[in-house]
Amino acid sequence: MTSVCRRILKGLASFLIVASVAACGVFGEPEVPVESRSAEELFLTAEFDLEEGRPLRAARMFDEVERLYPYSEWAKRAMMMSAFAYYDARYFAESRSAAERYLDFFPADEDAAYAQYLIALSYYDQIVDVTRDQASTFDALQELRATIERYPDSDYAKSAELKFDLALDHLAGKEMEVGRYYLKKGHFSAAINRFRVVVEDFQTTQHTAEALHRLIECYLSLGLFDEAQTAGAILGYNYQGSPWYEDSYKLLTAQGLEAEAKGQGWLTRIYRQVIQGKWL
């Protein structure tokens, strides 16, 4: 018998098992209690529900496999499938719980990387716009980093790296949004604190050039010219072709200032690192 025939017969057998269970009740017969059904029957029923677009129902049936047959191979598979089904149903806490159980029991299994990645996704998919609390963003970054560091050779590491960068950019965007608000209100010191976070902690994001420009605006407004000039020097070194540098250059020259490192502040320290090639 060919492998194709075996797969067809196996699929047909699985279908008949699910169909026979699903038929109970349809023709007036009582549905078979889950306790009376085998692990395979429960698992295949859950798979059928998942394929038919009923992920929450599938997840709960996978849980029944784990509950009734806790030490079986079916339970191991059901635990992973439960995590996925709950995630598909957007029951993120339940998805994390199942994935974390899987990692506790099978930390070295081939599906462990996917379990960790699902945990990260359960937070990542809850990231909200920058005007709201960013707790899920911080959690997503932590779990994405865990995926990258623990499973660098897995199929999920690259995707985790991409999502990590996007989440980091999102956090930087939050700092910029708050900083702009303070700047608009004339609370320059508070605005500086926000823009400084972007420059120091989120320098690889797309917001760094604007953060440096906003720092120049703040420092010029406070009469702190050394700091403004140093911010301009860093901006010119890394982003000379950007519109933010052009605007900053106009602001500085209007005050008779140049974009050059001056003084001994935190920006001067960063400027020295840039020149030495330790910070980009």
List keywords for this structure.
disordered N terminus, single chain, 13 helices, 72% helix, 0% strand, mainly alpha, elongated, 280 residues
Give a description of the structure.
Helices cover 72% and strands 0% of the residues. The chain is mostly helical and 280 residues long. The termini are far apart. Residues 1-30 have low confidence and may be disordered.
Which regions have little confidence, pLDDT < 50, spanning 5+ residues? 1-30
Q: Could you tell me the radius of gyration in angstroms?
A: 28 Å
Q: What is the overall pLDDT average?
A: 87
Order of helices and strands: HHHHHHHHHHHHH
Proportion in helices: over 70%
Number of separate helices: 13
**Amino-to-carboxy terminus distance:** 62 Å
Fraction of residues in β-strands? under 5%
Task: Describe how the helices and strands are arranged.
Elements: H1 3-23, H2 39-51, H3 55-68, H4 73-88, H5 92-105, H6 112-124, H7 135-150, H8 157-185, H9 188-201, H10 208-222, H11 225-239, H12 243-254, H13 266-276
Helix pairs in contact: 1-2, 2-3, 2-4, 3-4, 4-5, 4-6, 5-6, 6-7, 7-8, 8-9, 9-10, 10-11, 10-12, 11-12, 11-13
